[in-house]
Each structure stands twice: as structure tokens, then as C-alpha cells.
Write a structure and sequence with these properties.
Layout: E1 4-5, E2 15-18, H1 22-33, E3 38-41, H2 84-95, E4 100-101, E5 105-106, E6 116-119, E7 123-125, E8 137-138, E9 153-157, H3 161-170, E10 176-180, E11 184-190, E12 193-198, E13 202-206, E14 208-211, E15 215-217, E16 226-228, H4 234-253, E17 259-263, H5 266-276, E18 284-291, E19 294-302, E20 308-311, E21 316-320, E22 323-328, H6 333-344
Parallel strand pairs: 2-3, 2-6, 3-4, 6-16, 8-14, 9-10, 9-14
Antiparallel strand pairs: 1-5, 7-15, 11-12, 12-13, 17-19, 18-19, 18-20, 20-21, 21-22
Helix pairs in contact: 1-4, 5-6
Length: 350
Amino acid sequence: MLGVEDAGRCVMVEYLVIGAGPAGLQMGRFLHEAGRDYLVVEAGPEPASFFRTFPRHRVLSTDDNSLFDGPPFARYSKRSFPGADDLVRYLEDFARPLNVRYNTKVSDPKAFGARHVVVATGKKPHLPTIPGVEHAETYASASTDPTAYAGKRVLIIGRGPSAFETADHIAATARLTHTVGRTVQRIVKDGNGFVASIDGTGELRYDKVIVCTGFRRDTALDGPGVHVLAGDSIKAIRHAARALHRTLEAEHHGVPWPHRRLRNRPDALAATIATRAGEIPDGLADVVVTQGQHALLYDEMPTTSRNGFVVTRTQVRHYRRDELIAVERRLHRKPLERFFSQQLAVPCIA
């Protein structure tokens, strides 16, 4: 009845966070620091279940893996491309002070009784709809032993990190590797090998075919009134979690969104925005609202905002009474000065 397979016990909390990966743990830390009533639930017996399996060859693609309000990841590894096991140790330590319940599988978020539900359940491997793809190995199932590919012709389907990670790992032993994207039309099993039809190339024979077409977010628990927290990197995840937490704090606890004051002059606004534009994470926006002699800058808000100047990595949009009235895509100081001068109806200051 409760939607949580946990001996049938009902635990009423204000915030239920589903998933103890980077997204769920980051949200849990924000709720913990704010003194909110919360519970993080995880289907597995420990945190960071995704990173205990992926990436398969156990090397991360970036060293930017720190979450907010915790120890820096650099304490765990100083390598440019750290080991995935270093990240697992980091997330285990990050989770320790938090209220996390493991071995708790959620089938219905609404049935748990929480006022607010945050789904942070991560991703699952994606399998494309290519005829015959069921005959191929996948990124999740293919051997990570390079000697398994010795002297073999290998086709790797995919053009993302998992594909290039796999290709790099087996290149020293394989006789040949081809890495292709969406041009594979069909895969046919032929004896101990495969024949792949590739658009623009024709039919080629391989000893092994590995599908490395990335991941898709698990949407099984999505629904009305559920907050979804996701991102393509830990950097994106930590900023998205902070934006969601700030939204929840403002809407449900009356905590104002953090902001700072700027001089309401074209030169001051242009200088700040020219710097900030390159720092704003994808999917978020800084919002500048003018108030007399000053302007208030609210950083990293959802891009759905339609108030004042909405700044993303690629443009500045000016709204007046929710109506879009101007856009500037040249995010350098001089063009921005002219833009703000026109929009504020004051002379441009050199």
C-alpha cells in the first residue's frame, strides 16, 4: 500500500528523495543543512550504485566531481581522469551524515506520504532500435578484458563517451575497430561473426559488435507533483540540485532566493553579465531585476523565469510584464553596454 517495500512501515516525512547517487545525495545535503525533515531512499545496499558499474573501464572523463557543502573531490584523487572507485569512496563519505535508508525500493512515490518528492534515480543504458541489435553485446555486458578482442574486427556503435572509452580500451589488442554513429542500418548474425549494413559504406563483416549508445534517464517514477532532478555531469547535477532546493525553500519556507546588489548602470551590468555568462550552467539562468539606483542579481534560477533580464550562456532576454521585448546574443562588454543602455533608456557610459 505504501509504495515502499520496507516491511510495510509508513514513515511520514516532509521531503522524500529517491536515489542515493550524486543527485539524491546533493539534495539530501541541502535539506540536511537547512534543517528540513527529509529521507533519502535507495534501492541498493549502498550509495553510488551507478558508479559501481559505470564507466565500465573505471576511468572518469573529468576531475570536476565535487558536490556542494562537502569535502573537495581532490582529496580523493588529483588525477585529470580519476578512477571511478575514487568517486564511489567520495560519495560513500558524503552520504554518511545524511538520513539515508538503503534496500528500500519505491514503486509509487505518492504513496509514501511525503509532502514533496524529489526523483533522483539516475540513468539506464539506452539500446537503439536497429534491426538485429539484440545479437550484439552492449556497453554494460561486453568484456572489459582487452585480450578478449585480440586479433578481432570490432564494430562499436555510438559516438559518445562510452563508445570512445571502449574503443580506446581495446585498440591495443583488436585487429581493427570501427566506431560509427547512427549510420548502422542492420546487424545480421552470420556464423561466429556479424554482417553490419552501414549507410554510405555497405556491408562489412565483424567478429564482435558492441552497442555503446549512452544512457537515458529512468522515467519510471515521474508523475504530477514530482520534482525530477537530473544532469549529464556531476557539475550539472550539483547546480540543478541547488536551484531546485532554492525553489523549494522559497515556495514552501519563505526563504528568499540568494541575490546581490549591482549598480543599475549599463557599464556595471555589462561588466557583471559578460563575466557571469560563461559561468552559468546549462539549463539555468541569472536574473537581473532593476530597482531604482540598484539592480538585484539572482543567480542560477530556472530558465522558465520571465522577469527582468534573464541571462543564459548564450543570450540575454529582457522581459517586461512577462512579455519578451528584446534579446542580445553578443555577450561581450561593449555590445552588452549598448543593449542595457537601450533597454534602460539611459546614455551608454564608456
